[in-house]
Amino acid sequence: MSRAALLVLADGRFPAGGHAHSGGAEPAVTAGRIKDAATLESFCRGRLHTAGLVAAGLAAAAAAGCDPLLLDDAADARTPMPALRLVARRLGRQMMRAARATWPSTALDALAAARPRGAHQPVVLGLAARSAGLDPLDAAYAVAYENISGPATAAVRLLSLDPFDATAVLARLAPELDQVARQGAEAAARVATEGAEALPAASAPLLDITAQAHAAWPVRLFAS
Asked: Rounded distance, CA 86 to CA 198, Å?
């Protein structure tokens, strides 16, 4: 195992398509729910403990060697809005392309063949982490961080927010990110005996509703 692979996987410049998505920040900015660093922090905290926790569990389970098709179905069940399912699979398809080029493996090839239109992104990320020699906790960290770094980066563009302030938000959330990554990995460890029901199923109804509405906007800066 090379822990340095985690830096590659979590790098915002890894060509997995995340730069085109705001993680719900764009509709939140438009609605006035994100308007400065303080409100960005509240938004990211809520996202971390809901969507981020769910993603952390799925990614950790995939990295632990759980059946990725079972996990993909579990991700579908935890993603009620069609717009978010579509986004998750598009991001998963892009992540799959990047992962297979970076850390080729038969496991990635098999999932790509089974889900030609894309598996859910956290599942693909977890399998990529496993292919890179990383452990389930590493996968949980990578996907949990992505769930807050994406909106923070988007807020800089949407609000002309000072990037130093946005980065400070991420730093302040670091202890909670530790917590969420551990929760995700601990839940993943129970999947072998308890099934997919052991994975987190936290919900964020406002994120879901605004994501579906955002998908219908005729003009938008981000894909989601």
From this structure: 24
